[in-house]
Amino acid sequence: QVQLVESGGGSVQAGASLRLSCAASGRTFGSMTMGWFRQTSGKEREFVAAVSRSGGTTKYAVFVEGRFTISRDGAKNTVYLQMISLKPEDTAVYYCAADVLSSLIGTFTSDYRYWGQGTQVTVSA
Fold it and tell me: Of 16, 18, 50, 89, which has the maximum CB count within 10 A?
């Protein structure tokens, strides 16, 4: 079993930055691909970013447009999502996801078995 705990969400003005953290426990962190997804009310959960087991490969959703950076720290068993130039449309609950994948990166919710509880990000105009 894997436990994921997100933190770092909050309410900010457009143009601000936030860094989300996701602390993992219960399984070897280095064996898992880590991802970030987000969801707004009434919409499907969507892919934001993912990082491979080694940290050497990352993938981002098109709407990230170079504004978000995913990284991982093996010593802290933590994955981060640095977000800059936030826009009101980035408002959502952000979820951390993890699993041992046969591929380097997963971009579908079905790729991941383990999920955090989510952290709210609200960006006002």
Answer: 50
Amino acid at 69: T
Question: What are the tens digits of pLDDT across the range 18-74?
Answer: 999 999 998 789 999 999 999 999 999 999 999 999 999 999 999 997 999 999 999
3-class SS of residue 31: helix
The residue length of the chain stands at: 125
Both tokens of 24, joined, read 């993992």
Dihedral sign from CA coordinates of 60, 21, 54, 99: negative
DSSP reduced 3-state for 109: helix
Distance separating alpha carbons of residues 103 and 71, to the nearest angstrom: 18
Measured from the Cβ of residue 36, the count of other Cβ atoms closer than 10 Å reads: 26
CB 95 within 8 A of CB 36: yes
Tracing tokens 């996801």 back to the chain, one arrives at 97
